[in-house]
Amino acid sequence: MDFRSSDTITGPRSEDVLPTTATAAVKVVIVGGFGVGKTTMVGSVSEIRPLTTEETMTQAGVGVDDNVGVESKTATTVAMDFGRISLSEELILYLFGTPGQERFWFLWNGLFEGALGAVVLIDTRRLQVSFDVIGRLEERGVPFVVAVNTFPDAPHHPVEALRNALDLPDEVPIIDCDARLRASSRDVLLTLMRYLHSLAVPLA
Predict the structure, then answer these.
(1) Where are the domains of the chain?
(2) Which segments of the protein form a coiled coil according to its record (predicted)?
(3) Helix axes 182-200, 38-45, angle to 10 degrees
């Protein structure tokens, strides 16, 4: 390869470099049905420029993907979203957003490898798309919290009504969030960390 004097090789942006104070890193997966806001959450909370694999939706998905309630959606994640957030000077979370359509679920095997826990993002207008997602997490034994993404026209349900509808144990946290807002998404991740800590440290 012919490198000319004007050619430059650049590394990562300064804001993308891992902090030197980091001593521990954990992997968290953001899951949910099609169009619930996973890419939005990763993008809003990530302190680095997020990696996304969104592609324009085509006729190939007609009759295959369930887009009821999100008919205006024009792009979809086909592999994963990736981001990073520092919860403290020492603790780093690596975030992996999964594709929502069932035809891409074969990718979950790799994405869940080594994951400490998961956030299940739900849309109360389409609760049914969350049932299989939660079932797969329970089958894998992956601990998770449920985050209710507050879409403007979404109905609000009491926590216990949601818990019953999703058939969740009492100990699984359910939290409201706005996936567009960094602070709200960060609160969801902190809720997951506290839940994971409670599982690791049994009550005396």
Answers:
(1) 22-52+75-198
(2) none
(3) 90
Whose structure tokens read 């389409």? 126
DSSP the chain: ----TT-------GGGSPPTT--EEEEEEEE-STTSSHHHHHHHH-SSPPB--EEE--GGGTTTS--TT-TT--EEESS-EEEEEESSSSEEEEEEEPP-SGGGGGGHHHHTTT--EEEEEE-GGGTHHHHHHHHHHHHHT--EEEEEE--TTPPP--HHHHHHHHT--TTS-EEEE-TT-HHHHHHHHHHHHHHHHHHHS---
Question: Kind of pairing, strands 75-77 and 54-56?
Answer: antiparallel
Tokens matching residue 160:
């216990």
More confident residue, 174 or 25: 174
> Hey, what are 44's tokens?
């809003």
> Could you give the CA distance from residue 154 to residue 79 in angstroms, rounded to a whole number?
27
Quick check: 55 and 37 in contact, CB under 8 A?
Answer: no
- Tens of pLDDT, residue by residue over 62-88, are 444 455 554 554 455 445 788 999 888
Please give the Cα distance from 84 to 170 (Å, whole number): 30
pTM of this structure? 0.75
- Choose among 204, 203, 189, 171: nearest CA to 84: 189
> Which residues are bridge partners to 204 per DSSP?
none
Whether domain 22-52+75-198 has CATH 3.40.50.300: the reply is yes
